[in-house]
Amino acid sequence: MFSAGAESLLHQAREIQDEELQRFCTRVTKLLQEPPGPATMDALQRLFLIVSATKYPRSPEQLQVLCAAILREMSPFDDLALSCDHTQNTRQLSLVASVLLAQGNRKGEIRQVSQRIFKILENRQPEGPSVRHLLPALSKVIGLAPGTLMEDQNNLLSKRLVDWLRYASIQQGLPSSAGFFSTPRTRQPGPITEVDGAVASDFFTVLSTGQHFTEDQWLNMQAFSMLRKWLLHSGPEDPGSPDADDKSELEGSTLSVLSAASTASRLLPPRERLREVAFEYCQRLLEQSNRRALRKADSDLQKACLVEAVLVLDVLCRQDPSFLYRTLSCLKALHRRLGEDPGSERALVPLAQFFLNHGEAAAMDAEVIYQHLLSRLPSERFYSPTLAFEVIHFCTHNLALFDPHILSLLRLSFPSLFKFLAWNSPPLTAEFVVLLPALVEAGTTVEMLHALLDLPCLTAALDLQLRSTQTPSERPLWDVSLRIPGCLEAFRDPQFQGLFRHLLRTKASGSMERLTPLHQLLKPMASCARVTQCAEAVPILLQAFFSTVTQLADGALINQLVLLLLDRSDSLYQAPQYEARVHRVLNSQFLALCKLKPSLVVELSRELLEFVGNVSSICSRASMFTCVVWAIGEYLSVTCDKRCTVEQINKFFEALEALLFEVTQSRPSADLPCCPPQVVTALMTTLTKLASRSQDLIPRVSLFLSKLRTLAQNPATSSVHSEEDAEAIRTRATELLTLLKIPSVAQFVFTPTAGVCQPRYHRDANTALPLALRTVSRLVEKEAGLLPG
Amino acid sequence: MVHAFLIHTLRAPNLEDTGLCRVLYSCVFGAEKSPDDPRPHGAERDRLFRKEQILAVARQVESLCRLQQQASGCPSTDLQPQFSDETVSLHEAPHGAFFLGAGDPFQEPQTVVWMGVLSLGFALVLDTHENLLLAESTLRLLVRLLLDHLRLLTPGNNFLLRSDRIEGILTRFLPHGQLLFLNDQFVQDLEKEFSAAWPR
């Protein structure tokens, strides 16, 4: 109902004078600076009415855009009284739509917008409003609420898209300045051209250019921009859809070849017709992207079009397998072309995705494409951050789709993929934490662990590789603030070629080449920021690695890993804080592996004996040493492994005793700096544990412990250990001595059976270890209280 | 489709952490379906939530940009606003992409494509299946247009008060968040239209 009040409001809005409008705008601006209240809303709504009520370009675009932006910024509103029904021109409608679509669809705004747009689309008059501004809004509607459109609207849009995509004019448009007064003798606009300047050979696409564009050529560009989204929206999701009946006549690829004739295809329903047109469009784009563009921006667009064409073909083949036959041949040809033009290799990722989705149906071996993507490309382009992201994301995203063959190819290519990680660690670490578990397999585990520990070296080596191979005219991709002539020389030195080659390999080689000489050579690069960033990522990756490995490793592999941990813990690249952080992970993993397989202590007794026999281990890796000593004490017993013999226990005992003697008796020297108290107490405890199992060692241990107790009180050693440390050593020695006084209790405490370790207070208070200990200590204290000293 | 476009501050890579990362401009194209929340303050909460999401993205872009600049050895002086008109080569500016999982912070998983030019960061938040190459070149185009038409790098520039121009550029080159396949001629035509509507 158009009331008199509304009529006068409109009249006022149309007749407002410029100065009054200016004043009003100033008032609005002031209102907006204060906290918004009802007056602000009212003023803005009035302003909008003024703006939208006039047919002529009264208020310039600037004002409209700003108003729409303000309303959009303040969205969502609970009570927005804005509707798109009265807007006359489509540009304004697009602005109003942007506000409405920002409301979160509280009151069905999305449906409103789509209804209005379709009403305009249905209007077929050539002088009708330009639809150009509406397609993006429609695309947004589909993205936000796919179910909003009805079947007839779907069909209408599909038909329109077919027209715009396939039948856009191939003549250039007239310049906009040519109006009513241009003379008939004005030069007719020529045909559109390709990006390399040649006359267009076929229908208009986004890679066709000219001096001016016509309306339908604009629509062609817009239509292609939203094509993939529309195909996905309107395509059948599952085989049991209503489209299946239509497709039954097009079964088999032979039939689709026949139906490629254009006359037959015009009889297809709108959706199928659109697919056919989309296919032709993509084929044309593939051909057009082969041309050498005259302008750089066009060259970039060609590559983006390549990617999009492959993506659209993927969607088409998913929706209608009869396209597969025709698509395969042109895609295989495409792969051959890739890599010739820098930047075109970006199309490799969608190409690989295509073959992943359709390779089986195509019965085609896409091995060469996966090889290119996973092995060659990372080595050649590791420095491109977006390519790195795309490739790794492709891997993590498609893990569920990889068949065993591709999976094994992926696993063999891990050295190549690590190059992405080494060069771009901050954005890729999270992705690799997801990817690593899939890359781990029994055959390459050891090699991968070495590679992870040497990852910062890989970063340094890649930097050197770039320095050596890039031409001076290219922009430097390496760290320009770092000058390392020495490292560069070493990189070129034939002596180290083999090692660098191994480090920079693209496939898992199975060989365990040790890169220790490189650690020293690459040391000057340790302060390089990129190397440091990589070094920070390694501990996280190690955790991810081990969490997978511990699940799938068998006994032999666990032994191998433990030896590797011991070996590498003192042969790590010297980046700042790298050693400390990695040690923390290696130690905890060593303990976890021992817990997983306690018998490894007995199986690897020879290597462990060698490890603890070496005093210098204490200085370079005290924490690892402590863990090993603790593990020996914990797991070297018959309960853990029946093969444990008394000789083994005695041998370890002697070695550890000698070691403890050396660290506590001698003065600190340059060779043996102050030994941390944790090492001392760990040694003492382990010796006691071993003695409790081989009881004729008890007197030796007791004697040693009491000596240590007095030693700790000796002022001469107070310079070696702080008062707290000395106190800790003393206390521990006392505890151990106390326990050893009752050998059977010591055995029970130090070598409990599995059942005893679980406190089962509710079942049996007598066998609970903590309670037992408390009882014993109370008994012994009482006894000690009766004795002097 | 692009979900959002934002401009934010970038602090120098080697300086101490002073100040916050500020979002200077953001545009969200259409609202995400708001999580089921029947409470009456829904609208305000949605708006606040949206702002927080954008800020989270800006912070992540800033830290990644900083790390990348440190890694390539750019000295900290480079980040001081270079008050000059010389064209900044955008192909060489630090850039990258990263993934945001579902719920962190957007409901749907998204990809972010970003670029840093001197003291400003620019980012596009997109659907994960979007054409990344097109998104990168669109972002480069937007940055070039913004630098040209807003003179973002000249001193005393108060571009915060001229965001209508940014809006004008976005309505033409990224309408409703739709990435467009614009060849050079289309770009020129759109730029002409824009300059006509927004005279300098």
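Confidence is low (pLDDT under 50) at residues 79-86 of chain B.
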